[in-house]
Amino acid sequence: MRRSPAALLASILLLSSVLCGCSVEVPVQTPLPEAEGLRIAVASDLHFDPEHTDKKAGLGAVAYNPELIDALLYDAKSQGAELMLLTGDIVNAGKREYHEALTAKLRAAEAEGLTICVLPGNHDLAPVTQQEFAALYADLGYAEAYSRDEASLSYCVMGEELCLLMLDTGGYDAEAIDLQKAPKRYDDEAFLSDRTLRWAEQMLTEAEEQRLPVLCAGHFNLLTEEGRDPARSGLYLENGERMAALLRKYGVPLYVSGHLHTRIVLQEQGLTELVTEYLLNYPTGYSMLDLTAGALSYTPRRVDVDAWAQESGQKDRVLLHFSRWQQKQLKKYSVQNINDMAVKHPTTHRAMKRAADFFYAAMNAYWSGDLANQKETLKAMPGYDPFFRIAEGYAYEWWLRDLIDSASPLLGGFRLELKPS
User: Fold this and answer.
1) Cα separation of 334 and 296, whole Å?
2) What is the value of pTM for the model shown?
3) Phi, psi of 294 (to 5 degrees)
């Protein structure tokens, strides 16, 4: 049964407008009702850029950026989502005018019943500062928070059914840091400060006391190898392992993130991390979470741009037939990718065609969530060996081989037991 927007706001968000960073007294909460579920859409890395108007878009469809965000909001609502989390890099270059244009779209979606909570990523601040970001998105999470961390843009939403722990993982220009109690930084690396970790544990403790399940979100990653390697500048998250340990301590089963622009599911010692893909790349995907009594389920979702285009009266033929256009773009990219790499590794036209066919099939299997099931079929394709000979020395050589070898059936969906904290 679908909740009304007013009921959702009452049960999920509007418990307090506390902005001081400390917790307050709240009514005793009750566990999630068994009869009803909550559908949560999670999208990441929108990289909204309204100034990009050249419609000669490639595979990434960056030129259709504003339209794809409209299509995302339409699709999430049409699929029954009541809550949407945007986990950072929501605009490009941190420009105020980009944020203002995006918030107009998000507020319009909220007016139609979709509650939205946002987080900053490494592209969202500078020239906009921390305080300006919180003000711009006041009615998209910050002013509605139960508690805000004084040292970062992290905040907590505590409802009758769910606790949302929204983590600001930094990574943006140090010049944008202007919160009074934020640590002084001289680099733009991602981090969680000691103060933020203490605040997060306080929120987890309160959620445990109220027997609320917790969903945690951030932009940077907790469980990836790169996220734990200090040598990987731009990917490493300082104190990420400490945060992961906190989530395990309080029985939080899932952390959702972005940043890597590709879909990944990782599991380690009882904690699952879901990395949601870059919205603007093939296949224009996001994540759907279904919260029911005792369980949290994940399903990958592809934005139905075609349906949005027809419903909104678009005239652009690319948008009206977007899924077909994207498939054509992927095929063209597969061929061009092989042609480019073959300059250093010349081979026969037949081998190049087979390699391109293999790459196209692998990408389709990956993005459909079926790569684990198709692993052996892909390895048996005539283009498998030619592809890796042509790709020798290129990033695709190790990336695609590792992607296939480590393919997890969880990419196509999973279900986690969700016990109250």
Assistant:
1) 36
2) 0.88
3) 85, 0
Rounded to an integer, what distance in angstroms lies between the CA atom of residue 164 and that of residue 117? 9
What is the token pair recorded at 361? 């099939």
Average pLDDT over residues 90-108: 96
Instruction: Report how far residue 98's alpha carbon sits from residue 110's, in angstroms, rounded to the nearest whole number.
Output: 18
CA distance 162 to 159: 5
d(CA 125, CA 175): 9
Residue 58 predicted with pLDDT over 60: no
Match 């994207």 to its residue by tokens.
Answer: 326
Q: What are phi and psi of 129, to 5 degrees?
A: -95, 175
pLDDT for residue 7 is more than 50: no
pLDDT of residue 419: 67
Written in H, E and C, the secondary structure of the chain is CCCCHHHHHHHHHCCCCCCCCCCCCCCCCCCCCCCCCEEEEEEECCCECCCCCCCCCCCCCHHHHHHHHHHHHHHHHHCCCCEEEEECCCECCCCHHHHHHHHHHHHHHHHCCCEEEEECCCCCCCCCCHHHHHHHCHHHCCCCCCEECCCCCCEEEECCCCEEEECCCECCCHHHCCCCCCCCCCCCCEECCHHHHHHHHHHHHHHHHCCCCEEEECCCCCCCCHHHCCCCCCCCEECHHHHHHHHHHCCCCEEEECCCCCCEEEEECCEEEEECCECCCCCCEEEEEEEECCEEEEEEEECCHHHHHHHCCCCCHHHHCHHHHHHHHHHHHHHHHHHHHHCCCCCCHHHHHHHHHHHHHHHHHHHCCCHHHHHHHHHCCCCHHHHHHHCCCCHHHHHHHHHHHCCCHHHHCEEEECCCC
Q: Are 23 and 203 in contact (CB under 8 A)?
A: yes
Q: Which is more confident, 249 or 33?
A: 249
What six digits make up the tokens of 111? 């007016």
Q: What is the pLDDT of residue 59?
A: 53
Tokens of 323: 């899924």
At residue 294 the predicted structure's pLDDT band, cuts being 50, 70 and 90, is confident
Condensed to tens digits (0 to 9), the pLDDT of residues 31-48 reads 322 325 899 999 999 999
